[in-house]
Amino acid sequence: MRRLAAIAVVLAAVSAGLLATGASQESKGKRYRLVFDNAFGLVEGGDLKVGGVRAGRISKLRLTRGGRPLALVEVEMTEPGLEDLRSDARCEIKPQSLIGEYFVDCQPGSSPRPLGRKPLPVEQTSSGIPLDLINNVLRRPYRERLRLLISELGAGLAGRPRDLSEVLRRAHPGLRETSRVLQVLGRQNRSIRRFISNADAVMAELAARRSDVSRFVTEAGETAEASASRRRQLSGSVRRLPRFLDELRPTMARLGDLA
To answer: Which DSSP helix (H) or strand (E) runs through 200?
Structure first.
């Protein structure tokens, strides 16, 4: 009886040790806070991915305090090598499947500064537009409800065009990237205008000398054909070139001393 009791005590101690070890290992992951316009489809314990690779889980969901209510998603990174988010990281809510499961996918960024305890701002996240909600709009009574919502909220949205524009750009990353491209082109409009003017001048010169251009193309083709017919000799010369350079180096050194 005493032997059974001793064995039970040992097994209990081992189990407690394993549980403590597992708990300590689970608590080693880094934690981050991500701010989204909304957290539709996310659940606690859902997947967190970095570049499409599962790197952790969603630990907590809550609302921000003060100002416009936003979704604050707390995540825990548990996969070694993928737990480092930088200050310029970007995160997006994506659908896991067609049955309504969603996950958070992040790009770690390349800034020298880590994200740390500071929340990732909403300007660097996007929530997306759930496909099932779009499909619901096509059938009753959801389309009548959408019409009523648009009618009632039209005045409010008209008074906040900038907020609406920012939400739409974050909902569709392609719009955000298009805006950035247009901004870059706008800052370089003088260079683009100069390039177009120079291109016109170049094309005019080429048109005036089209016979020379045609002759150049013909001679280039003949040269390429002649080179191709002697490719064995050319490859042999290229193979001998490193040895020739090795032998040339001491000769040039002596020539330099003589000079």
So the answer is: helix 189-208
Residue type, 172: H
Instruction: Label the pairing between strands 90-95 and 102-107.
Output: antiparallel
As a whole number of angstroms, the distance between CA 173 and CA 169 comes to 6
Task: Using the structure block, give the residue that is written with the tokens 């790197």.
Answer: 55
Residue of 70, 193, 68 whose CA lies nearest to 125 = 70
Mention every residue, 6+ apart, whose C-beta is less than 8 A from residue 59.
31, 44, 74, 75, 76
59 backbone dihedrals φ, ψ, rounded to 5°: -95, -30
Mean pLDDT value of segment 217-224: 88
Contact call for residues 33 and 65 (beta carbons, < 8 A): no
Q: At what angle do helices 210-229 and 189-208 cross, to 10 degrees?
A: 90
- Rounded to the nearest integer, the mean pLDDT of the chain is 80
| Parallel/antiparallel/unpaired status of strands 53-63 and 71-77 | antiparallel
pLDDT of residue 50: 92
Q: In sequence order, which residues have a C-beta less than 8 Å from that of residue 179 and are 6 or more positions away?
A: 169
Looking at the DSSP bridge assignments, the partners of residue 30 are 77
pTM of the model: 0.49
Q: Classify burial at 91, counting beta carbons within 10 Å of its beta carbon; exposed 0-12, middle 13-18, buried 19 or more.
A: buried
**Ramachandran assignment for 137, one of left (phi > 0), alpha (psi -120 to 50 degrees), beta (any other):** alpha
